[in-house]
Design goal:
Elements (H helix, E strand, L loop, with lengths): L2 E3 L11 E3 L14 E3 L24 E3 L12 E7 L8 E6 L4 E5 L9 E2 L12 E3 L8 E3 L1 E2 L6 E3 L7 E7 L2 E5 L5 E5 L3 E4 L15 H6 L55 E3 L4
Antiparallel strand pairs: 1-2, 3-4, 5-6, 5-8, 6-7, 9-16, 10-13, 10-16, 11-12, 13-14, 14-15, 15-17
Length: about 280
């Protein structure tokens, strides 16, 4: 895998880069494992915008991913490596010995023809899924469960990698991609290896239109708006807002902690990210 550049035959192609996608084997998904995906343009059940800067974008079809990896002790063979428009990582179509097919997040260095398996006593091998207590400290892992049987929630984006740093009783200390060290129950499952498509972070979109294809709308500064649209809006000429930065609803931002002080999972965080 590498970064592909383009000849600047148009102004935007001068800066556009993309991932070469050498690992990809097919262009169309396995249709029985897809579903329709409705666009909400950032609007909630009341029809009002609850998430700003969303809208338009290309039509997508959702790929049903097996985050639980609960097909235990049955070997599967990687049939294809595919692109998924709903996430930054690639996905792999796995065909199991009983004939069932499932999509999984594609780890780095997983190739077509490789075998993967999930279970208690499986080999420490890229693509295999097993409980944290069975994984040696220092091993790269991804798709980590927070609750046993719920399915992987951590380390699923392109290039993500976590590591087990220590084991204490019923819990393992896991260093997450953000730098946070967190206690996770030793019975929770994780997948060996780091997520592929590591060059995703180095992509340059090249033009605003490519961002619109991805359902991202422009970001407008609050001080450039009218007073009715934002607390920082209005004023004669240029202004810096005249108050501490806030969101459109008036909630302080830029350094203001929004996490609840008495959140139940605070006791599981050993070290905060960025410290």
């Amino acid at each position: 895998m590498g970064i592909k550049k383009f000849r600047p035959v148009t102004p935007t192609l001068r800066f556009k880069t993309t991932v070469t996608g050498d690992e990809l084997t097919v262009s169309k998904p396995f249709k029985p494992l897809t579903a329709g995906k409705k666009q909400h343009a950032g609007r909630g059940s009341g029809g009002r915008i609850s998430v700003r800067r969303r809208g338009s974008g290309h039509k997508r079809r959702y790929r049903v991913i097996d985050f639980k990896r609960n097909k235990y002790n049955i070997e599967g063979t990687v049939a294809t490596i595919e692109y998924d428009p709903n996430r930054s990582a690639y996905i792999a179509l796995v065909t199991y010995k009983d004939g069932e097919k499932r999509y999984i997040i594609a780890p780095d260095r997983l190739r077509v023809g490789d075998t993967v398996v999930s279970g208690e006593n499986v080999e420490i091998k890229i693509g295999n899924s097993l409980p944290l207590r069975r994984i040696p400290p220092g091993t790269s892992i991804h798709n980590i469960e927070l609750q046993r049987g719920k399915g992987g929630q951590l380390g699923r984006s392109a290039g993500s990698e976590a590591q087990i740093t220590a084991k204490e009783g019923h819990y393992c200390l896991v260093k997450l991609p953000s730098g946070e060290i967190r206690k996770i129950h030793a019975d929770c499952y994780a997948t060996i290896g780091e997520v592929g498509k590591k060059d995703h972070a180095n992509i340059s979109l090249g033009k605003a239109g490519r961002s619109r294809w991805m359902n991202r709308r422009p970001k407008v500064r609050g001080v450039a708006m009218n007073p009715i649209d934002h607390p920082l809006g209005g004023g004669e000429g240029k202004s810096s807002g005249g108050r501490h930065p806030v969101s459109p609803t008036g909630k302080p931002t830029k350094g203001y902690k929004t996490r609840k002080k008495n959140k139940y999972s605070n006791k599981m965080i050993v070290k905060r990210r960025g410290k």
